[in-house]
Fold this sequence. Notes:
Elements: H1 3-7, E1 12-16, H2 27-39, E2 44-48, H3 50-59, E3 64-67, H4 83-91, E4 96-100, H5 112-122, E5 128-131, H6 135-143, E6 148-150, H7 168-177, E7 182-184, H8 191-200, E8 204-207, H9 209-212, H10 214-234
Parallel strand pairs: 1-2, 1-8, 2-3, 3-4, 4-5, 5-6, 6-7, 7-8
Helix pairs in contact: 2-3
Amino acid sequence: xxxxxxxxxxxxxxxxxxxxxxxxxxxxxxxxxAIAAEExxxxxxxxxxxxxxxxxxxxxxxxxxGLWKKEYxxxxxxxxxxVEDARKVKxxxxxxxxxxxxxxxxxxxxxxxxxxxSLREALPDTPIMADISTLQEGLIAESMGIxxxxxxxxxxxxxxxxxxxxxxxxxxxxxxxxSLPVVAEGKVHTPELAKECWEMGAHAVVVGSAITRPQEIxxxxxxxxxxxxxxxxxx
Length: 235
């Protein structure tokens, strides 16, 4: 197991991301978010875009899992979907590069295996995290020499769109069938669920929206308040 990946065992990884249409968008804000996460006990940071990665790298000594969310007309793959994107993420200072490893066509018409092979050849010494949505994708990534698996994209592909919460079944299947460390990620909204992930055998747990996206946190509170008020009205 890669030393950087090993360092993340048993750690809470906080995803510090804000897209251009979100109130907290900005590398300086994400850097401060990463500092706050570190002060709170995070053992790693997940960050989007070379700019944010550079800012966070300057602000914390925690391991940084870097990615780059980019859209291409010829592909639904979204998380670091090309080798060149991965190279720029690495150059920005990411310790580990996360990529879309779903079994969907990647930019340029590349299959998953073609993409991962090109990626491994281009960055032979860089730890790669495969963001997958199914067990089969995870096993393909393992066969291509990827270093760590993450359940990130369960619920975000056509095959898994019926899954609306955290995919514990996928986590358990990957742990049972793969020899790679498996990171739990995707809709881990409570400390209790994070604890369950570790109890199931997750190598680490990534939490994003429940910590670093106040608009999403507010929505969940507002929904509960609204439901409570409606229940009171009926009574």
